[in-house]
Amino acid sequence: MGSSPVKGPSPSYRSSWAPGRKTSMPQWNEYSDGERIKILRGKEIRQSDLAEMTGLSLPTIQQAEQGRRLTLRTLMKIAVALGVDTSVVLGQQAPRRSMDRADRTTLRDLSQTVHDTAAGILPDAIDDVPSVAELHETAAACWDVYWQGAYMEAAALARPLLVQAAARLREQSAAGRGEMHGILADAFRLAAYVANLTSSRDLAYAAIGHAQHAASLAADDLRQALVLSGRAWVYLRDARLSDALTFAERAATDIEPKFSTATVGELVAYGSHINFAAVVASRLNNRDRAEDYLSQSHAAGARMGREHRAHGTVFGPVSATTQAVGINVALGETGKALALISEIKPTHEGALSTAARNRYAMDKALAQADARMWDASLETLETALLADPKWARHQALPSVIVQRVTRGSTARLRRVSKLVGTAPPPVSGFLPATARTAL
Q1: What confidence tens digit (pLDDT) does each residue in 326-382 have?
Q2: What is the average pLDDT score of the chain?
Q3: Quick check: is 247 in a domain?
Q4: Residue 92 domain-assigned?
Q5: DSSP string, 207-268
Q6: Which of 38, 171, 302, 356 could form a disulfide with 352 if both were Cys (CB 3.0 to 4.6 A apart)?
Q7: How many CA atoms lie less than 13 Å away from 6 in the CB half-sphere?
Q8: Residue 130's closest CA among 173, 160, 155, 109?
Q9: Do 99 and 19 meet the contact criterion of CB atoms below 8 Å apart?
Q10: Where does residue 365 rank: exposed (0-12), middle (13-18), buried (19+ CB within 10 A)?
């Protein structure tokens, strides 16, 4: 088996390729195996570097890229070195959108940790297993990184958090196991969120499933609601809108508090959950339900007075208003969205997490594009992309916005298109609101 050549389809024509770009270029499976290896290697890794990384000889790497010989052993070593599944090298699935080799390796490692931890497979020796209090602090720090929009850093931090939480759970007395299951649920949920944002669909489903199991063992109603909402988000990104709405509604109603006695933490959880239910309802174009949930979201935010962070999420009056912009855009209420935008000041935006502020910028640019405020839309989008290029790498919405802008400064449109990594749209280009369904 080790010496049997592994063959894939030959290309019908040649051209450069970049994940996620919508052009007339060949599909990923139309390249040869050798061409795919060369593309995945990129300019930053030389053939000699790949040889060193794999432990293979330089002639072996050269022959693999020339399509002359690719044994199963060579295929597996190259795939591991480049941080992809063998199916990607063989053209059976395309690489993740906008990811370099380091990103792919980080997600591959996270996937292994999620599956191993869920199966109870831990390193033989873990030095200095943190205390429960230390793990609470670590989990909070991991969520801070996530809400800064540093998703790959959050993925890297989720791995030791999972291992350490599982190790502490193994040593914990019966009285404290519920609390540890709660921390483990948070760690799995963090992994699911990162996977969902990077379109690692299988990992997102697996991680949120493990989070649900851990939350049930924790016997914590709030954590179970958080996981339900997380599952709804996975469904939303997978275009399972009806299922997403079912879980989003259930997550919110399960923890609906009495406003007169609710704690800040309870309001954060409820407000963010009911707001997300409004998001899902808007994607289904269920106007009445979306507006009802928005009303409840605004009421929760007003009760809080300002933004607060709790349970791995952030919510307050500014979050309620900024997220209402995107909801109104999805419902086709461009005028309402622009009216809300006019009420939001830079000082208000400063109260948001980095990720929430970036997302609001996308919704704002989308509203401006729908109102044919071409240059304003491009300016909003360009400012956001330049301010946080690492966050922007994992977003699909910028390319949607670029395709909606059919007029405006040609120079700026070209600059923004280059930042997004897509070709400028034709003058007649336009994408309907339904293009946001699975974003």
Answers
A1: 999 999 999 999 999 999 999 999 999 999 999 999 999 999 999 999 999 999 999
A2: 86
A3: yes
A4: no
A5: HHHHHHHHHHHHT-HHHHHHHHHHHHHHHHHTT-HHHHHHHHHHHHHHTPPPTTT--HHHHH
A6: 356
A7: 20
A8: 160
A9: yes
A10: buried
Domains in the chain, number: 1
CATH number at residue 315: 1.25.40.10
Residue 390 lies in a domain: no
Task: Provide the residue range defining the domain that includes 237.
Answer: 101-350
Contact 117, 201 (CB under 8 A): no
**Does residue 76 fall inside a structural domain?**
no
Q: Tokens standing for 6?
A: 């592994």
Contact indicator for 277, 252 with CB cutoff of 8 Å: yes
> Positive or negative CA dihedral for 291, 295, 297, 298?
positive
For residues 372 and 370, give the distance between their C-alpha atoms in angstroms, rounded to a whole number. 5
DSSP string, 340-389: HHHH--HHHHTTS-HHHHHHHHHHHHHHHHHTT-HHHHHHHHHHHHHH-H
Residue type (1 letter), 240: R
